[in-house]
Design a protein that fits this description.
558 residues; mainly beta; Neuraminidase; 37 strands
Amino acid sequence: MFLIYLLLGALAFLNSFNVEIETQAPKIPEASSQAEQAEGEVLAEVAGISIADLEAPFSKTGQAQLPNPMHAFSSFKAAYGGNTYIYVLGGQGNRPLYNTVYRTLINPTTGNLGTFSKTGLTQLPKGTETHALVLATINSKNYIYMIGGDGDKTVYRSTIDSSTGEMGPWTLKGQAELPIGLDTHMPAVAKVGTKTYVYIMGGIGESGNDVRKTVYRALIDPITGNMGTFSTAGQAQLPQATYWGRSTQLVINGETNVYVIGGSNYGTRYNTVYKATVNPTTGNMGTFSTAGQGQLPIKIEAMHVHIASINGTNYLYVVGGDTGRTSSTAYKAPIDSSGNIGTFTTLRNSTLKTDEGGVFTHVIGGKIYMYLLRGSDDNNTTDVMRSIVSGSAITGSNKKIVASEDSYARKDQPNAKYGGSVTLRVDADPELISYLKFDLTSLSNKVIDKAVLKLKVDGNANSGSPLSKGVAVRSLENITWTEATLNYSNRPTSTNSIASITGAKKPGDLIEVDVTPYINQKPGKKVSLSLTNYGTDGIWLSSKDASSGKPTLEISYH
């Protein structure tokens, strides 16, 4: 299988006004708008239905409905605290605009959607529609950004609790605004090294008659999570002014591919599919091109787009939309190992009129469910519907990788070397920083589904710690250090925290840390991590040279 993944857990973006994210809380969010791969039993192809088609028409049976008729909302799917939810933000029902935030729980056994509820969710500061929604994990915190919408240029930020999925207060403080007010614009996001960039493409300006082809880029501050200044400098612009188009993305072999699909310019609708690649060094958006991309069979705007992996092949789904009237047609196209979109064919059993809503897939027990938040069918609806995708699920493999090198560095003994020690030590007074290196070259061309760092507290009576302020797990770009030469004076440094260890630990305890979002970007490579204590509660951990409890990455992949 070719290597393909989508910045799992670190970030996500608006995808036909819906975002797809998977997380394994209470750790850092994982998964997402990526091509979601089914796991478990093999599903039989239904007679007369091709792979990746719907086995039956969408149905409301067993699915809770939206509280109000609405369209032009944003939505995303994410898992927190072991539960998977779909969130719905804003939208309208023939005016006024909604400021509501709802979520529904996907039943982990039946796959049915429960009641949409506002409980634990801070409502939006104002009514809004046609905004861009971006999610990112920065310095171990989950942020959600609402950008523009309804001709506005403001950027609001909130946080999402990793354990409960509850949403905190929204704030403008510290968030750069868009250069102009926009709506129906298209976002993308890319992780480049330790930097996270947000891109805003096209849309219609605040004057109401200014359709744009601009591409803006902003850097999210790696410490505070604040949105930086938006600029067109260095960014390739769209080939044509576009609003009501859709964007989605995939990361293939470390490169972020951004797709812009359909849209219009005041009644002139497009059937175009453009692809651009984010420069993996500078983070600049590359040239948009239709070369090698299958084009839509019809000219359309305001449709739902989604990417899912079926039988090991990634498919782009385009559902509904507006062709001058609300469309009941849906299409699917395969995506090859270079990220190119293939020929579109009609999606069987999708016959509902729908636009300005959302579509998702989710896997339970080997079944691949597709959910449709219908939005508009020329009128607002409360419809929430579900079908099953025809295809097979791939059973993954597991691998344990012990640290290839490890050591620690001590500030008050800057030239001392501790490679070969049976313990790794982490403290703030005196400062002790531990370092780990793992070789993932055996996972070349694999898709990593989950990665857990396992550490064991040393059995020495003095090894435990209350860890009142916790330990940061940081990623290191420097992989050239060796345990034989590492000391405090030549230590590699990093401010990019990817996870944290909290709570009292006693000798012999096993510590498990979900590092999927970071490791998912590194299959086939060597990776380095450091452990830094926020407080003075020192802790000793078993090293690779200990008789047991060696630092290990446990990885599930396919």
